[in-house]
Design goal:
By secondary structure, this protein is α+β, with helices and mostly antiparallel strands. It has a single domain (8-92), classed as Arc Repressor Mutant, subunit A. It is built from 5 helices and 3 strands; from the N terminus they run H-H-E-H-H-E-E-H. Strands 1-3-2 form a 3-stranded antiparallel β-sheet.
Length: 97
């Protein structure tokens, strides 16, 4: 698969779900992502860091009722990587049918 668009960063199930969720919404709060995935804060933080390290997602912090909230969105690079990864998965599946 020399020209593969398969992305090992995105492919991990939790990161794939994070990208899928963020691809359908403008931005999503940390707790919403955590609850959707059904993971702990620490597990989600680990996956978010990996996506941030490659500039696939960015976060914005804000205060709501004195509590800090973290909101995430896909970057242009992250959205493109996710789209290419999904295309590659579809290509792989079509090849197996």
């Amino acid at each position: 698969m020399e020209n593969s668009k398969f992305d090992n960063i995105i492919h991990a199930p939790n990161r794939l779900q994070i990208c899928a969720l963020l691809s359908s919404l403008e931005q999503v709060e940390f707790r919403v992502i955590r609850d959707e995935l059904g993971v702990s804060d620490s597990v989600l933080s680990k996956h978010i860091k990996q996506l941030e390290d490659v500039c696939y997602i960015k976060q914005k912090k804000s205060k709501v009722n004195g509590r800090e909230r973290r909101w995430f969105h896909l970057t242009t690079k992250g959205r493109r990587a996710f789209e290419l990864h999904v295309e590659e998965l579809k290509r792989i599946v079509r090849g197996l049918l």
